[in-house]
Amino acid sequence: MYVPRHFQENDRDQLLQFIRDHSFALLVMTNEARVPIATHLPIELQVGDDGVARLVGHVSKANPLAALFGADLQGLAVFSGPHAYISSSWYDHVNVPTWNYLSVHVYGRTRALSDAETFDLLRTQVDKYEASSACPISIESMTEAYVRREMRGLVAFEMTIDTMQGAAKLSQNRDDANHTAIVDQLRQRDDVESHRVADEMQRRRRAGTLG
């Protein structure tokens, strides 16, 4: 993706943490006819002892993406964070409106997982997303036969991360007065996304000042 230099996020650890924190992603692959196919799904990050980072997830077997895993075609996983519209009326000078946002794009090639790997992935995902439930379920609370029967309808995959691009477009190019005005206006809104963008803008500006 195109990211101006002052909005680029290049710290690997921060990019990986962003993926962990925003794991519901958009997976895009292009088939041999050069038709892009996309689907939304939860994707988990795994970093091996060798330091190699991988993404794992699963889709319905009926999803056209399922036939592309392992076909030596590059995939793209898009992880999106908070975003908010920025009105140019908030500046002390004439300018155009814009949009502030955080995003990470991950590129890599895929392979289909084995049944054993798929079973382990399902256990990991259920345990992760059930952790905050009042009455959490687990793979173990179902019969193994039932889980394996359900597995027939899906295909799990692994994407080895080749390239990551991070964008943190948070008004870094504005002076302190206009930066503060944007934060103040975002906080006057009643939506969570605007407040989250304001929080991240302040955190990064303070970190830059302290550094």
Topology of helices and strands:
Layout: E1 8-9, H1 12-21, E2 24-30, E3 36-42, E4 44-47, E5 53-60, E6 74-86, E7 98-112, H2 115-130, H3 144-151, E8 154-169, H4 176-188, H5 192-210
Antiparallel strand pairs: 1-8, 2-3, 2-6, 4-5, 5-8, 6-7, 7-8
Helix pairs in contact: 4-5
Give an account of the 3D structure:
- With 211 residues, the protein is α+β, with helices and mostly antiparallel strands.
- 31% of the residues lie in helices and 34% in strands.
- The two termini are 28 Å apart.
- It is elongated and about 65 Å long.
- Strands 1, 2, 3, 4, 5, 6, 7 and 8 form an eight-stranded antiparallel sheet that branches.
- The protein has five helices and eight strands, in the order βαββββββααβαα.
- The protein has helices at 12-21, 115-130, 144-151, 176-188, 192-210, and strands at residues 8-9, 24-30, 36-42, 44-47, 53-60, 74-86, 98-112, 154-169.
- β2 and β3 (36-42) form a beta hairpin.
